Amino acid sequence: MRIVFIGSKDIGYLCLKQLIEWKKNIVAVIARGDDPHQGQWYKSVSQLAEKNNLKLFKTNNINNLEFINEMKTLKPELAFTAQFPQIYKEDFIKIFPKGCINLHFAPLPKYRGCFPIPHAIINNEKEFGVTIHHINTGVDNGPIIAQTLFPIDITDTGKRLYEKSTNQGLELFKETFPLLEESTPKGTPQNEEKAIRYKREKPSGGIINWHKNVLDVYNFIRSLYFLPFEAANTTWKSKKICVTEVERTKIEGDGDPGRITKITKGKGFLVNTKDKQLLVKKIQIKRYDEANADEYLLQEGIKEGDLLK
Prior knowledge:
Elements: E1 3-7, H1 9-21, E2 26-32, H2 45-51, E3 56-59, H3 65-73, E4 78-82, H4 90-93, E5 100-104, H5 116-122, E6 127-134, E7 144-151, H6 158-182, H7 214-223, E8 232-236, E9 239-252, E10 260-264, E11 268-272, E12 276-284, E13 290-292, H8 293-300
Parallel strand pairs: 1-2, 1-4, 2-3, 4-5
Antiparallel strand pairs: 5-6, 6-7, 8-9, 9-12, 10-11, 11-12, 12-13
């Protein structure tokens, strides 16, 4: 079968690597237009393709007419895509007689589109998933071919859940792809009443709302922990502070939400939420660098009683 692989991020790299190890007939690889770029934190699909002498295309517009016409000349049969950040239009999808199939990090129909991982943690979900589905002209709304579900632990950060999803996604790919070669399953239509989709933007702009309860604040902060990206942030006066590691406490709030109540050397500092106090342990100071929260406050001249907003 003549395969076009379309992918990005670690799961894209790993699925392509698996296809290469299986010695599949990959007639083209499509990667992001900026892959690789300076500071890239994930493995490069384009470099893997080049290393294995595969026909490589890098594009910022997969629906470009000239690009589509070039794809047609390859006479592909099936497209498989993983973590590619573009929406495919009908002219592109219909190139592939055996289907255009996607691997999505979410238990569809919940969490279609962007930022499914942080939103699932913010919503205090106990379970997450990876889904392989047909691509339609909508966003992650095609019939489901295969799905795997797994627990979200209360300590899981956005980065940890991404890693879990990558591992689970690769296993699901290994189980499912051979079935696609035999005959592409029609799949099960998604229940639109259960569909969830958020805007293509960081949840709440990444800003911590101390007026929420301690569990909600804790979930929000851990959901956005994914170095080298900017962590959940708050401000003291006009200075932005990015919070990476926190711990819930049973200590009742003592004053305004956002008020720093106690700084403890070697542990961090306590801050009020709507109900309980939250222990802040680590602060992000650079892309990959963190500092102990109590040492950071001392360095910046932030004191007990100061207000974070």
